[in-house]
Structures are given as structure tokens and as C-alpha cells.
Amino acid sequence: MNQLFLQVFCAIFSGATESISISNEILPFGSPLTALFCLSPLYIAVYKSKSYKQTFWLFFLQTLTVHLLSSYWLANFHGFAAFTLGASALGTAFQGGFCGIIMHVFPSKISKKAKLQEQAGLCPYQIFKRMLWFCACWVLYEYIKSTGALGYPWGTLFMAAYKWKIFTQIADITGVWGITFIYALFSSLTAETIMSREYFLDKTQAQNINKQLAQAAKFTLAVFALCGIYGIIQISIPRWPEKLLNAVIVQQNIDPWEGGDKKSIEISKKLTKKGIRQLSEQGKETDLVIWSEGVLSKNFPKAANYYSHFPEDESLKEFIASTQTPFLIGGGVSLDRKKRKRTNSAILFDKNGIFSGFYSKIQLVPFAERVPYAENPVMIFFMRNVVGFYSSLVPGFQYALFKIPLKENQDFETPLDFNREKFAEIKLDGNGNSIQKERIKFSENNQENPISFLKFSTPICFEDSFPSVCTNLFKLGSEIFINITNDSWSKTNSAEMQHFIASSYLAIEYRTTLLRCANSGYSVAVNPSGKILYDLPLFTESSMGISVPIYKRQITIFSVLGNWFAHILIFAVFSYIIFSAVKDISFINKKKIRKFLKKAIRKLK
């Protein structure tokens, strides 16, 4: 009983420690130091667990604690706390419990004989195996939690690692899963060191265990050293921008759900003028003005006519035309009026305020924007009449790439060597005269100059934390990610910072610039190594006119192979489970065969 109580305490303590490590109201960028040790109590508890049921509940409690303590602000979602926080907490905890069941497979196969052999030094890699198994299972948990239609990549170990940039640079190779792995590895080593005190029954056993621990420590140190060296190299690499985007980022600091269209637009117009003036004072022309998610409440394309007359004193269309600058604004799009299918979208207006196209959010927020089985009449009744909240949003139907001109680069000629064939023939006509058509090829390049325009994509809200979305946008040719989001409903600094931290890995994974325009924060520009270039204070009505560096597109391992690192670990976990199951079945069958043969022999005698 005492041991079970201690295990429960360890699971909850582990969850609380991980929550402290993640961005919170006291530590806005989290604590990577405590993150190194946060899983150690859980590790000790699960390896002392005696059953699948116990391990299920230990993982359940740990993950539930993390979710409730780090994502408590979900309770502020327009009065639907029981659903947004309660349902998501239970969902996360059951995901954790499922991974706890998987976690117990390896310990359950360790016999008393194997434990004695380990103490005697006959199983020199047993500690190492335990550590790797735990790390792989933890990556599996965070992968399940962070991907798919119900994905929620908050409350994760990699978020706690944000401040130590030299160890996060591996994201362009392994994604965030490599970061989770190395932090879980350190926690595992710490836990094994604590657990090893139990084996010090005599000098020989102590030496054997210490030898194994030394091997595990060397491996862990080597992994961190390699990651650190790689990180230092990436941070130290000089990166020179190929062009600059002169952008105005508008942070209205008003929840459009509460303030309404008119107030949001009026505040945004005032802040836009301030940002354009800021760039103008530096002798720069504005290329793009960005307003955050959900500013416009009417659904496009029909709403294009509405906003050509609204607001009454100066319509949105008239205001945009007065600036002679393209605008990117968050709003809604009606895909099918009859079926009431609408999307959360980023809408592009040309310099005259004319609606030019949109990208619709594909990864919807589970239980907020998208409810499972939302089309089912029973679910519709339950959401409207019991929960009191119903969203008719549907996922977008295509990935979109926006392209705008960069005003200051329009006068530059296209370089002669841009996008030319490797082999060429230079010829004269039969009289030895130059051929004009051939001569022009070597006098000018009629292709569009790549520095005269910008291609960008717009992951909306928490899509900036989903590689499944961003990889497709990147493959379209995106040179920069521009995220628009609205987290003002959270009313907490930690919610804003957690979203930023989760999204910041996007810049590293694809080695590109990330620009975020948030309704109340955190509006920020981040370079390809994750360094903050410009930002605005949280929950402040403000704007900034900035020159955002655009770098040459770099094809990273992660952009090509995606979540390969997590997939390898998950494959290894399930391969072991299948192998163990086959082995157990084979052993049972052998016992049955022996029993049958013994009976047959007795009968023959």
C-alpha cells in the first residue's frame, strides 16, 4: 500500500514538475533545467509497477496533471470550460494511459532471474535498454498527443526546452521528437542513478551496476554533446537575407467575438496608419499589412460587397485602397451556404482593396472549432442544447501559396544566370551575322526576378505547430511562414507564450523566417535559428512596421522526411511488442505440445 501511494505521488509530482518546466505565468519561456529531471519520478514509478493496470493509471495521472496545470487557461474559452478543458484533459489522460499500457510491455518481460543476472553483471546493457524503451514510449505519447485530427501539441517536453537554443537546433533533422528524446533520456539516467542505490547490497553488485550506469551516462553525454555542437554550428552560421519584406503587423488586442467588426476594424485602421508611418520615416514603402485571425466576421466571397460599404464613414475597401498596399486579414469563407459550411481563413486583398483569394484552415482545433461527428444530428443536439456551443466550421480544401510584389525591388533586372539551362549553343546565321533572337538570350533575362516578389503561406492559429500542414505549404514554394492567430480569449500570458514556443520550432525545422501576427500576442518575427528579431508586448494595442529578412529556401532533412525519427522509434516499440507476443504464443504452444506428448506416452505405456 505504501509503495502504491509513493508511485502515485511520483506520477503527480512528475506532472507538476513538467508543468513548471513549460511556459507559465512566472517563467514565460519555461525552464529547460527542470525539464531535464521532470520525468525521473514517473520513470521510477512505472518501473516499479507490478501490472498493466498500475502503469495505465500512473501515466494517466502524470499526463492529466500536466494538462490541467499547464493548459488551465482553456477554461476561459467563452464559458465552455467543462468541454474545452474537461474533455481535452480526459482525452489527453487516456492517451497517456494507453501509452502506459505499452510502456509496461518491456518491464513485464523482465524475470527475477534477469534482475539477478543484471546485478551480477551478466546483462551489461539492461539499464541502457530500460532507458531507451522509456524514451521511445514517451516520444510515442507526445506523437499521438500532437498529431492527427485531435492533435494538441501543448504540454509537451520539447516546449520546455525552448530557452536552450543549442539543443533545439536538431529540429531541422529530427523534428521536435529528437528534443523530446534527449530530455527524456536525461530524466531516465537520473532515475536509474536513484534506483541503483537499492542494489548496493555488496561491493560486487555495486561495481556491476555502476559500470552499467557509467556506460549509460557516457551515451547520454555523447548525445547531448553532439546535439550541442550541431546547435552551436547552426547558430553561428552567418545567414544573409536575399530580400526584405516591409510589413506592418497589427495587434488589435480586442477579442472579435466580443468587440464586433466595427470596433476591430477601426482600431486596426488606426494601428495600420501608425505602422505605415513608422516604415515611411525610415524611407521604406510598405509591402504588406497583416491583421490577425478572425477580424472580419462576414463570410467571403459574398462579404466583398459588404466591406466595400462598411464601415460607413470609410469602408474597408476604401481604406486599403488609400494605402495602395496589399492586406492579409483573418476572416471567414462560406464554402456551401446551403449546407452552412464555412471556414476560418486568411484573406488576401490587393492594393485597391479587392478580394483576391484565401487560404482556409485545415487543422481545426478539436472540441472548439471542430467536434468529432459534428454532422450527426445527435451530436448537433447535444452541442447546442447541452453544451451550449456549436461550431459549423469545416476544414479547408486546399493548400494555398500567396505571391505579392516587393515594391523596393521592382526596378532590378533579372540576373542573367537565373534559372538558365546548363548547356547553351551560340550560333550565327549562314552569312556570319548575329541572330537577334539568339542574341537576346545573352543580353537579358525575361523571366520574373525572384527578388521582386515574395511567396508566402499562412498557417492559421495553431496550424503553425503541425508539420502535416506546414510541410505541404513549404513544398508549394513558401519563402516565409506568416501565422495569424487569436488567443485573446485565453486572458493569460502563459497561453500566448506557449503557442509561440510551440510554433517557434517551425522556423528551425524548415530554416526559414516565421512572422506571427496575433490579436493580443505574441506578435513576433523569428529567424531560421529561432532567434527573436522583433516583437510586441502581450495584451497591448500596438503595431510595428518592420523589415523582415527573407532567406534563401533551404531544404532540410525534416522538410523532406518529416517525422521519420518518431516513426522509427514507434516502429521499434511495436516491433518489440509483436515479437514478444509471438514469443509468448510460441512458448504457450510448446508447453501444450509437451503436455499432450506426455499424456500420449502415458497412454501408450
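(the above was protein one; protein two follows)
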Amino acid sequence: MNDQPLLQPIENIEKEPLNEGNKKIKTITTFSVFPLIINAAIGTGIFGLPFAYYEAGVYPSLMVLILFFIVNNITSGYVLEALSRLNILPKSFKESPQIIEENKCFIKETYGYTEMGYRLGSYPLKFFANLSLVLNCYAGLWAYVATCIKTFTTIIWIIIGNQDYCHSKNHFLDSWECQLTYYGSLIIYGLVVIPLSFLDVGKQAIVHIILTIVRFGSFTVMIITCIIQVIVDGPLTNERNVFDFYWNGFGTVFTHTAFAFVVQHTIPSIISPVKGEKRKVNLPIISALSIASVFYALIAVICSYTFNGKVLTPVTLNWSTYTGRNGGWGEGKELWFAYIIKYLILFFPVFNLTSSFPILSNTLAMNIENLFPHRYVLNHPKKCKYISRALAIFPPFILTCFIDSLEIIFDFAGIIAFFLAFTLPCLFIFMSLYRFNGFTLFTIKPKTPFTNIITSTPFVVMIIFFVTLILFMISLFFLIQETVLSFINDSSSSGSFSFSN
């Protein structure tokens, strides 16, 4: 999931190409798409993958990862194909295309998901696309707040000297001291990011380059310290064999992976500044998704094996007990270098997400504003601006007051990510072909630089659509089953506790 939000809004209000409106925008090379997609792909979602791999087992989790890698590459191509055809389609959905000019069917202008929905499926598809984007942004901001609050609370109790005091999965069951630090951390984080989110966000390219370097540096340190721990002293626990199959965790690994992987909605804005006809932008996208998949696998497999039953979400909290002794997590006072590693890993998501929150909240506000009546926005621009920003900023804090479980947040976000990553790209390419050819199963006209003779046929698009839908329904079934069983177990354990006392 993208926790390096785009510096321009994902969507413009209506019928406006993303590469218009700022004629002085700097162009980039095709190669520059690679790091931008990497930044979009490797984000907050990676913090929950080790727990998901522990729940489902490494092998089924890697199967899901490989499946997502293949399908994500296909659906990313669908977005590029649909954008290519939009350049020769009439701006109104009611107008029919006159002449198919394949030599002009390339990406000259780019449009965001909302405008793609409007041009290809009129207002119903536009509304569905915009609603999916809004919910995805809400899930991302909710994850930002919960991640930072959990980290703040852990650091406060490390300073107090009792870091294991507040580790309940439900903060309502914690003592008043834990609740005080929890809500105090929520207020402090809010005082920092809420005022920033009401300001207009400027370009912060240098800041984000630094944060990207810190991110990859931190991930590298995480991998190295885990490998050293396993070599020297083995996993922290052997509660279960993480290489076995645990199908009851399939729902968790599916939604967590979906949330971590969704980048399709960022593609139009990322490729917008690319020079020329953008005929080869698919190559850096495929390369970036390949690197992201390798990183996901490394972090998830190594961390789930190292921490086993002690794995936390976000996984960075596992470094709160890092001492540098006996491989890394041995008993005793921290060694001097352990302080550096410990606080580097703990603070890295806080710095990263604090900087990203105002940008993503402004992106969300722009999408919320798209849901307002267009005439009202024109007549009351300032009022709409601040109402939409308030609606973007405050709900994630309110939600975190009641639910701070990142497992639940990632599950919810993964459900929304499914629509952005699979459903909408399939609908976009299908409708882009339908606008030219009517309902047909095997005709691919007009062809684009990204057309694949197999995956681009309407018949295969429908197969991918329904296969991913079936997988989604299966994962949803397991997810509901896990939630119900967890609720029953929690209720029975709390009941037995009360009886025994």
C-alpha cells in the first residue's frame, strides 16, 4: 500500500487530464517510473505481512503472493490499455467513437480513476471508482494513526521501564495507565498532523527521497538482525511450524497482501509527467512490482520465522525488546549499538507516516470534494475545501479511539484494495473495448502498445474478474470465520476468568 502518497491529488475534479492544469510540471524519463512505483508499492502494508504469514503459514502465503504478483501485473496493464484507448474516445460517454485509429492509440494524456470511470462507464462507474478511492484513503490514514499510536505507547513504556505492561490486543481491557498513554499519544499525534493537514501541501521531493532511503535502510537492518538471531540462537519461540499450511489464516493473508500490493490507482498520476508517448512505461512497472514482491517475501518470511508466536503488528514493535545479546533478543541490558538499532526501527514508521499523513489526507479531501455537487463546489470553494479536509482528517482519529487493531484495519483495507487492484481495472479495459466493439468475447480493437493477445481479450478479462472474485469470496468466508471464532474464544476466556475469580 502506498504510504508515500502522490504529491498531486489522485483525481482532478472533472474531465481534466492529470498532465494539464500545471503546464510547468517537470517531465521525467520512463526509468523514473521505477522508483515511484517502488515507493507506492512498499508502504504501510508490509508491517502486517509477517503476522499474516504466521497465521496462514509461509507456503500458502507465498502462493498468494505469487498469484497477486501475476494478477497485479496483468491488471496494471489493463489500466495502461484503458488509458491508451481513452485518448481516442469522445469525452462524453454518450458519444460513439467514429473511426478506429490504432496509430493514435497511445497514452498522450492521463486521467485518474474517477475520470476513467466517468469516460468509460458514465456516473455509476465514476461513483464506484471514487468511493473505492475514498475508502482506500480512509483505511490508509486509519493505519497511519494506529501504527503511530501503538509505537508512541510502546516507546513511552520503554522509557518508564515496563515495556511489556500494555500489550493487550484490546486497549479497553488495559489498565487506566495504559489507556492514559494510549489516548495521550493519540492527542499528541493529532496536535502534530491535524494542523499540517489543513495547510496546502507543497512539494517535498527532498524529504521523500530521504524518507525512502531511511525506509530501505531500516528494512535492510530488520532483515540482517533477524538472520543473525536465527543463525546464533534460533527463532524466539517455536509455538508453531510456520512452514505448515494453516488454511484458516487464508483470509488474513489475502487481505493483508491485497492492501500491501495495491498500486493500480496511482499509475495514472505516476506516468503523467513521462516524456512522449509513454509506450514503454509497463517495463518499469513490472520491474518495480517484481522488486516489491521480493521485499515482501523477505520481510514476511524472515520475520514470521524469527518471531513466530511473538510476532506483533506492526512488526517494528518486535524491536522494542532488542538487546543485541545472544543473536539480538537475548536477556540482559542493551548493548550500545542495540540502542541505535532499536530506536531506528521503532521511530522509522513514525517519521515516515507523520510526513505522509497530511499529503494523503489532502488527496482524500480532493476525492471527497468530487462527491459534492459540482455547482456547490463552484459557488462555495473555500467552504467545500475545509469541510472535505475535516471529513478526511478526523474520522481516522475517531476510528482509532475505538479500534486500534492493525489486523482488523489491514483486513478492511484489503477488502477495499481488491476493488482498486482487480475489479476496477477489469471493468476499465472491458468497457474500453465495449465502447469500440460492443459486447464481444474475442475482439481486441483498437490495439495499444500494452495489448497482450491472450490476457487482453474480453474473454480472459472476464475469467480474471470472476477468478479474483471467487478468491475474494473465499477469503471473506475465512475472514468472517476467524473473526467469529476469535470473538467466541475471547468471550469464553473472559467468562471463565470472571467465574474463577
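Reviewer note on protein two: The first helix runs from residue 33 to 41.
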